Amino acid sequence: MREFIAAKIGEGGVPKEFAAAGLDLRPGDAIVVPTEAGERVAEVVADVPSACSSCSGCAVKKSFAAVARVATEEDRRREAIREEREKETFRSCLLKVKEHNLPLKLIKAELDVDLTHAALYFTADERIDFRALVRELSGEFHIRIEMKQVGPRDAAGMVGGFGTCGRPLCCSTFLKKFRPISIKMAKKQNLTLNPSKLSGLCGRLKCCLAYEYD
Questions:
Q1: Taking residues 86-109, what's their average pLDDT?
Q2: Vertex 87, ends 124 and 134: CA angle to 5°?
Q3: Strands (E), the chain
Q4: How far apart are the first and last CA of the chain?
Q5: Fewer CB within 10 Å of terminal CB in the chain, N or C?
Q6: Which of 84, 136, 92 is nearest to 111 (CA)?
Q7: Higher pLDDT residue, 193 or 37?
């Protein structure tokens, strides 16, 4: 029995690590895991390599959230309803952003567990008045709408993807805080100063430049 597993939320979700909490879990199992928006249903996709789980003092190990339980049919039904509502909210917001000609890029729609509040994440280069947009969406879905502006690095973490290393993005898996990254870090490590090689999917300098800088 593995002590840690990797699971993903939704079809395009990026796998994240969780403590198995004593459950005998295998790839393909549906489980309930904690997130910032409440409990979500996830699919087990792999075991976490034993090299990490065997390290009792590992800082990464201590940060793993625990699996809440094996998903029930009711959990799956509620998750399916939630996902469909999120898609509807996202699609409607995209259309209204175009109607209002707002200079923003919508990244993600996230509903809470009781479907009464939706957070819409976006990026923008300037200050935007989106009060009319919020009023229309609130009236259409009869829920509280909150617009949250995020930076390029946060947006990349929400969307997910793979870096040039071939692994899922650090910002969408384990990296929770972003430290300042400078070109000085690349120079100190004798890396080729090629912007296309030093930049991540967010368009900013890669966070991993700081990993061995010290």
A1: 92
A2: 50
A3: 4-8, 16-19, 30-35, 38-47, 65-66, 69-70, 105-111, 117-123, 144-149
A4: 37
A5: C
A6: 84
A7: 193
Give the CA distances from residue 34 to residues 49, 69, 183, 192, in Å, rounded to whole numbers and listed in that order.
Answer: 22, 10, 37, 41
Domain 79-150 listed as CATH 3.40.50.620: no
Instruction: Give the lowest-confidence range in 151-160, 167-176, 183-192.
Output: 167-176
- The single residue listed with the structure tokens 């800082």 is 59
Q: Rounded CA gap, 140 and 152, in Å?
A: 29
Tell me which DSSP letter residue 12 carries.
T
Q: State pLDDT tens for residues 66-83.
A: 999 999 999 999 989 988
DSSP character string of 133-163: HHHHHHHHH-SEEEEEE--HHHHHHHH--B-
Taking CA atoms, 120 is separated from 24, 114, 173, in Å, by 36, 16, 21
Residue 158 Cα distances to 122, 134, 181, 192, angstroms: 10, 21, 20, 29
Separation between Cα atoms, residue 206 and residue 194, nearest integer Å: 12
Q: Is 125 exposed, middle or buried (0-12, 13-18, 19+ CB in 10 A)?
A: exposed
* Distance separating alpha carbons of residues 3 and 57, to the nearest angstrom: 14
Domain boundaries, the chain: 4-71, 79-150, 154-210
